[in-house]
Amino acid sequence: MRLDRRLCQHPQWNRRHVQLLLARGEVQLNGQPCRDGTRAISPYCRIEAGGELIQSGQVAHYLMLNKPAGYLSATSDPQHPTVMELLPPTLAAQLHIGGRLDRASTGLLILTNDGLWSRRLTAPELKKPKTYRVTLAEPIHPDTARVFAEGIHFPYEGITTSPAQLEQLEPCVARLTIYEGRYHQIKRMFGRFRNPVVALHRESMGPLQLGDLAEGGSRPLSQDEIAAI
Question: Which of 43, 96, 156, 173 sees the fewest Cβ atoms within 10 Å?
């Protein structure tokens, strides 16, 4: 919603009154003066105008978690542990998962209650890079990097993957950067060479780097990390 439209919801203010408040600098958005009524706002914004608190702003949470193997990327499950069980229950109840991983996969997950923000990170059409350390059952075929860079056609969906970058680290280990998140995409890409993936670890999503965060651990994102999305 736009800031001016939110202010116009005040029972005693009309559009002209809101325009005057903005022009006089009597509107504050998250503690800063704002004269632009077209600014997009969210439930997490604090809005003050004309000496009144219009919206206190919900507390926004942005966390990264290093997912261990064996945990589901889900809010609950009757059979398997979920990543939400690695967080305090009162916090976990408020969050959703941005960018899921298979139960056997490990690495970077993002958890937040800000849906608009997480979509800027995970929406397929935005093609944000996601980097994985991949361990294969067999040595990597010499043509793999070239084929991945050209894109691989998936007949079932009738699509061709975006060009991906492969950096071979060891005979059976590579760092792979992709720009989508299709069903079992990495396993299917290596399946073109009949080479099963035995371990998959996500290291980064867009500008967010997992770094040395302990397995099963989590931490809040910094303001710079939040703003980078």
Answer: 156
Tokens of 91: 């916090």
Q: Which of 4, 36, 102, 114 is catalytic?
A: 102
Q: Render pLDDT for 10-68 as a digit per residue (tens, 0 to 9).
A: 999 999 999 999 999 999 999 999 999 999 998 889 999 999 999 988 889 999 999 99
Q: Which residues touch 122 (CB under 8 Å, ≥6 apart)?
A: 98, 99, 110, 128, 181, 205
- Confirm if 67 and 105 have CB atoms less than 8 A apart: yes
State the Cα–Cα distance between residues 226 and 133, nearest whole angstrom.
24
Average pLDDT over residues 195-199: 98
What one-character-per-residue DSSP string does 75-92 give?
A: S--SSS-BGGGGS-HHHH
DSSP, residue by residue, 132-182 = EEEEESSPPPTTHHHHHHH--EETTTTEEPPP-EEEEEETTEEEEEES---
Q: Model-level pTM?
A: 0.83
